[in-house]
Design goal:
single chain, alpha+beta, Bactericidal permeability-increasing protein, domain 1, Bactericidal permeability-increasing protein, domain 2, 2 domains, about 45% strand, elongated
């Protein structure tokens, strides 16, 4: 019978924990036993709904009652009216995959029966109670060359404790002749068909679905992210680590980054359902892509600065810092072109993050004809250190900024600018 078809939906929930390139991942998802239990619980709810929608085929047979001849019977219009799934579990199998099992399940099927014996014809309604259903199936998880997950069933077993058939009708003596035979045949038939149905559905329908899963997502007009699987899942006794590539790439021309992902070592945590681990590789490939595409450029003009600011982007304001600017280009607006000289580099260490961008600030005077006159170029080296910790369940941290300007007059320029800003703040407080 096709009762087993609905069970395949439950087993599909593990398919996304599979994993081709055996390089280090840039992103790791850890699904713990608690997470698997929760997924199974939600899957069982959906499974029960799916079972009620299964269309069951007719069941017929012939029973020899000896000198009385043969009795032909048929069960039709069968629908599942009740489902109980009291016990179920999912267990990681180290270095292989998952073991899913259901035990003590109960299903009731209602329908019509029809019996023909010689010139006697009788029909009526019936219900079949399938008791003590136990199903166990192993799932071997892997990946194909495209980095999509694969899944294969193994070690499927099924047992049904008992089948009870209750039929209404007027010729009870005839029904009693083959009643036990029908129950035995139904039980054996279902036991023999459930595992083949489950394994065939996993091997064909579910595997075909997995082959259509996307492994990249477009971020914008420049980049996309590759989250294909880099290797088989690391299956331990209490969790599964899913290894994802976690790499940004240029949509127009994909190139290999000039660096490799570092080795990621996750602590043996399992208190939560899911853990996520991200390496610096994910962020650094993003910086590499946008730097290579020339997208890390930002233009700053005076209309972008608050009107109440004491410092504006014009030659008069900057003339206080660099007198020659206001003399050569009096009373003109300015434009700052801020760009990175190289891709920003993020370094992740236990307890802190360090971002080290190298940038250029090119200043221009905006001439009356809207053309630009170059004024000066600042080359800026910056180290941003973020210290991260967890306090009372909250992520806390601090930032430290270390920068240097590569111009001979840079130090004096910054000192004069800070003094001017400080004086402006004091004047506003007096007002």
């Amino acid at each position: 019978m096709n009762i087993a078809y609905g069970l395949t939906f439950l087993f599909s929930m593990a398919a996304f924990v599979g994993a081709t390139d055996t390089g280090n991942p840039g992103f790791v998802v850890r699904l713990t036993q608690k997470g698997l239990d929760y997924a199974l619980q939600e899957g069982m709810i959906v499974l029960q709904q799916q079972l009620f929608q299964i269309q069951l085929p007719d069941f017929s047979g012939t029973y020899d009652v000896g000198v009385l001849g043969k009795v032909k019977y048929r069960f039709s219009s069968m629908t599942i009216s009740s489902v109980q799934l009291p016990s179920y579990q999912v267990i990681p199998v180290p270095d292989k995959g998952l073991k899913l099992s259901i035990s003590g399940a109960f299903i009731q099927v209602d329908g019509r029966w029809d019996v023909r014996y010689s010139f006697i014809h009788e029909d009526g309604s019936f219900n079949i109670k399938v008791l003590g259903i136990s199903i166990s199936v192993g799932l071997i998880l892997g990946s194909d060359e495209s980095g999509r997950p694969t899944i294969a069933p193994s070690d499927c077993s099924c047992h049904i404790s008992n089948v009870e058939v209750h039929m209404s009708g007027t010729i009870g003596w005839l029904v009693d002749l083959f009643h036990n035979n029908v129950e035995s045949e139904l039980r054996q038939s279902m036991e023999n068909k459930i595992c083949p149905e489950v394994t065939q559905s996993i091997s064909s329908k579910l595997l075909s679905l997995l082959q259509t899963l996307p492994v990249t997502t477009k971020i914008d007009q420049i980049s996309a992210i590759d989250y294909s699987l880099t290797g088989p899942p690391s299956v331990m006794a209490n969790w599964i680590d899913v290894l994802l590539k976690g790499e940004f790439f240029d949509i127009s021309h994909r190139t290999t980054p000039p660096f490799s992902p570092p080795v990621m070592s996750l602590p043996p945590e399992q208190d939560l359902m899911v853990y996520f681990a991200v390496s610096e590789y994910l962020f650094n490939t993003a910086g590499f892509v946008y730097q290579d595409a020339g997208a890390l450029v930002f233009n700053l003009t005076d209309d972008m600065i608050p009107k109440e600011s004491s410092m504006h982007l014009n030659t008069s304001s900057f003339g206080i810092l660099i007198p020659s600017i206001s003399k050569m280009y009096p009373n003109m607006l300015m434009k700052l072109k801020i760009s990175t000289a190289s891709a920003p580099a993020l370094n992740i260490k236990p307890g802190n993050l360090t971002l080290s961008p190298v940038g250029n600030i090119q200043a221009y005077a905006i001439l009356p004809n809207s053309s630009l006159a170059p004024l000066f170029l600042l080359q800026l080296n910056t180290n941003v250190l973020a210290k991260v910790a967890v306090n009372s369940g909250k992520i806390v941290g601090s930032l430290e900024l270390d920068k240097s300007l590569r111009e001979p007059w840079s130090y004096n320029l910054i000192q004069r600018y800070l003094k001017m800003q400080n004086q402006s703040i004091q004047n506003r407080r007096k007002d």
